[in-house]
């Protein structure tokens, strides 16, 4: 595997672990903040410039 592919896999894994941990530790107040989806609150901010497709 190329270094670029390995780096992308490590970055993707890092995003997944971060999102999982933040979601598990977060209180259930999403609707009070006007946020309606987990994607909007947890994934979008940390996945900028990363292809998740």
Share of residues in strands: under 5%
The outline comes out as elongated
N to C succession of SSEs: HH
Task: Decide which structural class fits the backbone.
Answer: mainly alpha
Low-pLDDT regions: none
How many beta strands in the DSSP annotation?
Answer: 0
What count of helical segments does DSSP give? 2
What report would you give on this structure?
The chain is mostly helical and 53 residues long. The protein has a domain at 6-42. The chain is built from 2 helices and no strands. The longest helix has 23 residues, at 3-25. The model has no long low-confidence stretch (mean pLDDT 76).
Write the layout of secondary structure elements.
Blueprint: H1 3-25, H2 38-43
What is the compact description of this entry?
The chain is mainly alpha-helical. It contains two helices and no strands. The model has no long low-confidence stretch (mean pLDDT 76).
